[in-house]
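STRUCTURE:
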C-alpha cells in the first residue's frame, strides 16, 4: 500500500506543473487604452474580453495568458463594447455595443445595440436595436429556451430577444428596480428566474420567468451582508452567484440564494483597479479590472505620457460550485 501511495504522490507531483499551466495567474489584454468592461468564457476555456476605448473584442485561447484582438473595431458597425457573453449552446458570442464619449459633430449618437457573433469564427450574425430612447446596453444572460436578456442601464429595465425573433422587446422595468440613476448592470438567469444587480444602489433583484415567458413580480433579494457596487454577475452552481464588486477596495464575492434570501461571502478582496466582471474556467474564476476611473479622469488636460497599467484579469481559485 505504501508503494501505491508513493506512486500516486509522485504522479500528482508530476502533474502539478500542467495544472498550473492550464490556469495562468493573469490574462493580460494586449494593447493600450483597452478599458475593458466585461469578460466571458467558452466551454473549452477560451476567454473573451470587450473593450470600451478600442471598440474591439479580444480573445485568449484556452490556457493562454494573453488576449489579443479578435473582432476588429467597427465590425458590423459596432461601437464601444460593454457586456459580452459566450453561449456555447448556440455557438454565439453576445455583446453590448453603445456610443460612448462625444459623437461626431452633427451626427446623432448610434443606437444601443445587442450584437451576436459566431463564437468560433467571430463572424457577425446580427444586431438588434434597443427599443427605448436613450438606452444603454450593459450586460447579457441567456435563458434555457435560448431567450437573450439584456440590461438597459439608463432606463432601469431588462429587454429580451426571444429565440428566433428579429427585434428586442421591453421585458420588465417601469420603476421595479428603482429610479433612474440606480444603474441596472449585471444580469444572470438562475433556476427559472432572472437575477439583476444595480451598481449605484448595491442591490440584487429576482424576477421569475413565468410559463408564458413574461416577467413575474420583481422582488428585492434580502442579503445578510451589504454589497459594494456590484458590477458583473455570473452563475456559480444551481443557487450561487459570483459578483465583481467595485466598492470596498475591490473584491470578488459569492452569494448563495435560498428563495429571495442571500448569504454573502467574500472570496477574495484587494482589487483596487475596479473589478467589472468575472468568469469561471474550471475551478478558477477570472476577475477583470477595468481601470475605468482612470478612463474617466483622462481628458484634454491629462498628461499624454501617463499610461494605465496593463489591463488584466486575475485568477482566483473557487473550487467546484
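SEQUENCE:
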Amino acid at each position: 500500500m505504501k508503494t501505491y501511495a508513493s506512486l500516486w504522490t509522485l504522479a500528482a507531483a508530476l502533474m502539478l506543473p500542467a495544472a498550473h499551466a492550464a490556469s495562468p495567474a493573469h490574462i493580460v489584454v494586449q494593447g493600450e487604452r483597452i478599458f475593458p468592461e466585461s469578460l466571458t468564457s467558452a466551454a473549452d476555456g477560451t476567454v473573451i474580453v470587450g473593450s470600451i476605448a478600442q471598440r474591439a473584442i479580444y480573445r485568449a485561447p484556452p490556457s493562454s495568458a494573453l488576449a489579443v484582438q479578435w473582432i476588429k473595431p467597427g465590425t458590423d458597425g459596432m461601437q464601444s463594447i460593454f457586456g459580452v457573453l459566450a453561449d456555447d449552446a448556440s455557438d454565439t458570442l453576445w455583446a453590448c455595443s453603445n456610443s460612448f464619449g462625444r459623437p461626431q459633430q452633427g451626427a446623432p449618437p448610434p443606437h444601443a445595440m445587442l450584437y451576436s457573433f459566431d463564437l468560433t469564427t467571430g463572424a457577425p450574425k446580427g444586431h438588434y436595436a434597443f427599443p427605448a430612447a436613450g438606452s444603454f446596453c450593459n450586460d447579457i444572460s441567456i435563458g434555457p429556451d435560448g431567450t437573450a436578456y439584456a440590461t438597459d442601464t439608463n432606463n432601469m429595465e431588462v429587454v429580451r430577444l426571444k429565440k428566433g425573433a428579429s427585434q428586442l422587446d421591453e421585458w420588465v422595468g417601469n420603476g421595479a428596480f428603482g429610479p433612474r440613476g440606480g444603474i441596472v448592470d449585471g444580469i444572470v438567469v438562475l433556476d427559472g428566474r432572472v437575477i439583476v444587480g444595480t451598481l449605484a444602489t448595491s442591490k440584487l433583484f429576482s424576477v421569475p420567468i413565468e410559463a408564458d415567458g413574461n416577467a413575474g413580480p420583481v422582488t428585492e433579494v434580502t442579503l445578510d451582508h451589504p454589497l459594494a457596487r456590484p458590477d458583473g454577475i455570473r452563475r456559480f452552481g444551481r443557487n450561487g452567484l459570483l459578483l465583481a464588486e467595485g466598492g470596498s477596495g475591490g473584491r470578488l464575492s459569492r452569494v448563495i440564494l435560498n428563495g429571495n434570501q442571500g448569504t454573502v461571502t467574500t472570496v477574495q478582496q484587494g482589487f483596487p483597479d475596479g473589478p467589472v466582471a468575472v468568469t469561471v474556467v474550471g475551478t478558477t474564476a477570472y476577475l477583470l479590472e477595468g481601470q475605468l476611473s482612470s478612463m474617466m479622469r483622462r481628458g484634454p488636460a491629462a498628461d499624454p505620457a501617463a499610461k494605465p497599467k496593463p489591463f488584466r484579469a486575475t485568477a482566483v481559485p473557487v473550487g467546484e460550485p
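REMARK: The CA atoms of residues 142 and 148 lie 5 Å apart.
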